[in-house]
Amino acid sequence: MSQRKIHGKPVSDEQIQAWADEAEAGYDTATLRRRGRPTAGEGPGTVVPVRLDGPTLAALMKRAEEEGLANRSEAIRAAVRAWAHVA
Fold it and tell me: 3-state class of 32 per DSSP?
């Protein structure tokens, strides 16, 4: 019999059976951890490819850093919301 491991630690047949029993009983989907990217606003987002020249991107990232925005996507969303007057 092969030894079953998770993260390098052995897993007993009893633990596997306990997990199987739990799964067969069903899960409350409201309490499960969500996977994937968080939503960007209300609901799923649409990918919109944008090309920016070097000086524009540098200015965007400088302002993003000044405003404490986490990444390029957040900076672009903030800029578009401000221009489009969306909350």
Answer: coil
